[in-house]
Amino acid sequence: MKTGEPVNEYFARTLTIVNKMKTNGENKTNAKVVSKILRSMTFKFNYVVCSIEESKDTSILTIDELQSSLLVHKQRINMSSLVEEAQALKISSMEQFGSRGRGRCS
């Protein structure tokens, strides 16, 4: 997987290669494909990969289930990034206007 590559694009590219290999007579089981996908994920997905490997039987995990699981985790990563960004913007705007979050006494 390339850094910054969307999960859906990575799966599409990978499954295209797997289908070509199957067309040429190679026997690639779903378990082998799932295993190779998990091994090739970027560093950002390390904790997700560990979680999937520990909580699920990867020998019976389908490619669709794996993709769904990775997409959900990616969405959570994106949401936490948005929350952090919003908090940073809030703090910087409070500093810019001199507010400390307290009411002013006259």
Description:
The chain has 4 helices and no strands. The protein has 106 residues and is mainly alpha-helical. The protein has a domain at 7-75. The model has no long low-confidence stretch (mean pLDDT 82).
Topology of helices and strands:
Blueprint: H1 7-23, H2 30-39, H3 46-55, H4 63-96
Short description:
With 106 residues, the protein is mainly alpha-helical. The protein is 67% helix and 0% strand.
Characteristic key phrases:
106 residues, Retrovirus-related Pol polyprotein from transposon TNT 1-94, elongated, mainly alpha
Radius of gyration: 21 Å
Number of strands: 0
What fraction of the residues are assigned to beta strands by DSSP? under 5%
What coarse outline follows from CA principal-axis ratios? elongated
Percent helix among the residues? 55-70%
* SSE succession: HHHH
Q: Profile the largest sheet.
A: none
Mean pLDDT over the residues = 82
User: Number of helical segments?
Assistant: 4
Separation, N- and C-terminal Cα atoms: 59 Å
Low-pLDDT windows of residues: none
Assign the structural class, choosing from mainly alpha, mainly beta, alpha/beta, alpha+beta, or little secondary structure. mainly alpha
